[in-house]
Amino acid sequence: MRIIVTSIFVEDQDKALAFYTEKLGFVKKQDVPAGAYRWITLVSPDDQNGTELVLEPNEHPAVKEYQEKLFADGIPVTMFGVADIHKEHERLVEKGVKFTLKPKEMGGVTIAVFDDTCGNLLQIIQQ
Q: CA angle, 83 as apex, 44 and 29 as ends, to 5°?
């Protein structure tokens, strides 16, 4: 068994698609109509047949509350691995990404947290 798809709930699919592709550098794999919304998946440019990230609309009331509470408490919804966190932090800051936690070493790893502008905090980690 392996993970093939995982979701992130977003407030606006178009805004999220722009942020995740233009700022973070993910590649759009699928974008198809799905009722009132779309099935949008992204992949890493380094592994285009790997795990897909779904930009899921946050329309369900329970999802909105969950998302808002995690954000308010400063809890990232997911983590992305990077080879050089300081270089990635600098690249993202140059693209206008707002960090809530600059790179910080914690127990043998270095992490940083930023706002995806779509209702989530995301964490990057260098192991």
A: 5
Q: What is the pLDDT along the chain (127 residues), one digit of tens a residue?
A: 999 999 999 999 999 999 999 999 999 999 999 999 999 999 999 999 999 999 999 999 999 999 999 999 999 999 999 999 999 999 999 999 999 999 999 999 999 999 999 999 999 999 9
The full set of domains in the chain, from first to last, is 5-126 (3.10.180.10)
Beta carbons of 67 and 109 less than 8 angstroms apart: no
Give DSSP secondary structure letters for 57-68: E--SHHHHHHHH
Given a contact cutoff of 8 angstroms between Cβ atoms, the answer to whether 103 and 86 are in contact is yes
Query: Tokens 């706002």 belong to which residue?
Result: 115
